[in-house]
Structures are given as C-alpha cells and as structure tokens.
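Example 3.2
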Amino acid sequence: MWNFSRNISRNAGESLTAQLQNIVRSEIAQGVLHPGTPMPSTRRLAADLSVSRSVVVEAYGQLVAEGYLEAVRGSGTRVARHLAPAGAASRDQRPEPALPVSPPAPWIDLRTGGADSTPHFPHREWLASYQRALYAVRPGQLDYPPLAGTAPLREELARYMGRVRGVRTAPEQVMVVSGFAQGLGLLCSVLPHRGAPDMAVEDPCHQRLRGFVKDAGMRPLPIPVDREGIDVEALARSGARAVLVTPTHQFPTGAVLSGQRREALLRWAHDVDGWIVEDDHDGDLWFDRAPRPLALQRRAPDRVVHAGTVSKTLVPGLRLGWLVAPPALFADLERVRAHRDLGHDVLTQLAFADLMASGAFDRHLRSTRARYRGRREALTDALQRHLPEASLLGAAAGLHVYVGLPRAADEEALVAAAQRRGVRLRGGREFHAAPHRSRPALVLGYGAHSRTGLRRAAAELAAGYAETAAAGSAGSAGSAPKAARKFSNTGSPRGVLMLSG
C-alpha cells in the first residue's frame, strides 16, 4: 500500500485523475517524494487506491508531460531527477538571497588527498575474494566480530607486515580499525592513562592531526622537522612522553628519518618511558632508488605502535586500517574500544584477508606503484624544466611532492595566481603550526591526474610565479629580481632539481 498525505475521494468536486495529480505535485513540493524516487506501477497504485487503472495512467501521463515525473524504459516511472530537493524555501516562501556566482571548476586539482584510486581499484579480484569469503564463511563468523578483528585478517596482516616492512609481531598484537583516524582516537584515549597527557606531533604535519589530537583529549605539541626528520632534541625538551611520527616518508616534507635520528628517537622513548606512534601512511608507495627503510617498530616493538591503512593503496572508502600495539597497550585499546563500537565489518575483513592470501594484493601494489611512479616523474621533470630555482625535498614516495621556493617568493600570491590559471594547490605554510616562521613552499598531490595534465600544471605554475614576481618587483625600486627572470617560461636556463632524504 502506497501512503499519501491525503486520500482521494469520489465525492470531491474534481476528477479522480486531477486529485491524484495534485497529490503527487504536493508530495514533491513538500519534500515527501524526492527526485529519483520510483513510483508504484500503474496497476499496483490503482489497486491500492481502489480506482481504475486508466485513472493512474492518465495522471502519470500528465505529470510526465509537466516534468514532475519521468518514464524510464525498463525502470518504470520515477520522480524527475532534475527537480531540486525541497528545502527551507519550500516551507518558507520568502525568496532566498542571490548567491554569488561560483568560479569555473579548475581543470586540475593538485591538493593532497585526491588520488584516482577508484578507477584502478581491483574490482574483479575484490569481487572474487568477497565471493570466496562469503561462500567459505562458517557458522558464527557473521556474528559480532572480535573487537580486534577477525583471525584470518590479523594473521595475514602479521605475515604481510613482517615480510614487507620488517614488523615484529604476532596476530594477537594486530588490531583492525576503521582507518588511521579511529586508531589514533583509541590511542589518544589510552595514552593519558599511561602518563602521557601530551602528544608531540611533527611540524609541519597534516592540518587535521593537531586538531584531531586535541579533540581526542590530548594536547598536541609541535616539534620541528628538518631534512633528517623530527628533531629529537626538541622532542626531549618538550616534556612529552608520546609522539606521532611518519618516519618512512614524512608528511608533507617527504623527509626520511635518518639512522642517527632513529637511534636517538628510540633512546628517547626508553629514557622517558614513552610511546612512539609510527604512522606508515604511504609505506607501500616507495619509488626511491634507495632501499625503503624498515619499520621503526622492528627495533622497539615494546615502545612503538605501528599503524597502517589501505586508504592510499586500495580506496579510502573501505575505512580499513590496523594497529600493531605492544602487549602493554593492547588490552587497554580493546577495553576502550568495547565502549565505542562493536568491531569492523566482518565480510570486508575476510575479503581483504583473501585478497592478501591469494597474491592479488601484491600484484595490485606492483601496478599501482608503476602508475604513480610515472606520474611523479612527469611532474618532477616538468618542475625541473619550468621552475629551475625550486627544490624538490624528500624521498620519491607517496602521492605528493614538497616543493621549496626561494625565500623571496610570495607563497600566498603564487597559490592565488595558480588558481586563476585553473590549478588548485596548497602552500606549505598551511601545514605549519607557526606559518609566519616557515619558508615558502608548495605541496603538490599528483595521484589524481595524467602525466599530460601534470606537465601543464607545472607550466601554469611557472607562469603564475612570473606574474607574482613581476608584481612584487613593480612595487620596489630597481630592476626585476633575478628569480623572476629564471622562473619565466621563455629563455629560462635549465636548473638542477635538488633532492634530499
């Protein structure tokens, strides 16, 4: 039975067809029937309303002609998709103020976080793994899962992390979480009870991290990062007893924690009875000629929590990650989690375990690395050609590059100039706790675009830099700055792209 807000009546002063049309129009206007909502078949609705089918056929036909409904071959009749959803204006007839016209969408968005993982998701392999997991599921496995995750996935993750990242662990120390955000939230609830009310974070770092740590109940303490990674001496002076680091590929600078700093960081954790949270956010995307560093956890499994995720290698929408925690913390993490949720989706866990066990995940990673390596090379070659004064910092890894600019560069003006040319990006100062003290830089994500698009973006950046340099020189005495001449598109000498880390 399809319910209307009011009934049709044979005693009303208008025809049954007109009544039905008015009711449908009213339901759409009030937001009861939403765009795309399937309508009942004419036969079914006629039976529900106890009217002739011809009444419904005629009403539907008129509503289709007026644009309220649409007839889709093979899919029946639906509320027209082009209709705007009813909002405040439908309840309040006062006209809304005119909104400013939005600028045209940029043709290339280099802001970090935009990887085109969906088109390259291993659909066929995932479906096969999901089917095998579903058919092989045993009685009881579809009940509420263990808080730490299903046994098959924890076993596969322990094998994988030991084989690929050198992590020393057992399945009993692996906790499956809904992405790194949930894992960090759990840690921020546990660590204060272990004598660590503050969480040291790298500076610069992802903008969300400082706020997330604070909202989760800990005080974030920014610790500077240089080309060797986090400054351990500054960390020791901070008084913190917990630190969040990205030692394999620091975000956003790309720095790799040097061997000397690794030793110092592990000594710090031992000396202060502290904890290290190792965020291995893009460890599977390593393109550098130098060997990928092993996990920090390998050297101190009793002091380091190793965190991983599939957000950059499969798709963020799976919300699938893991923590490898020391036994001293693991029970506390389970206890906190018991008050927050009832575990992660079982079938997704079993499917991913099968994907790993079958070798399909390794094959997917090989093709993923080849694709992103090619895009990174295209962008760095174009930057070297068009912006010879820029320096590309950090290891060749992940889905972004950190581009250092000359000290005289106007970072904010360059970001605005690039956007006027159809390129969206973020300046490096956005990621610093004290932006005014940082050197100008750009953080460029290359995962979502073709090589051709990335080359075009680099050329537009050069034009934007030339524009901002010219504007700066116009306001000062003397000739145009040397940097402005070198960054121009025409006649610029080929520079050396400096790599560090």
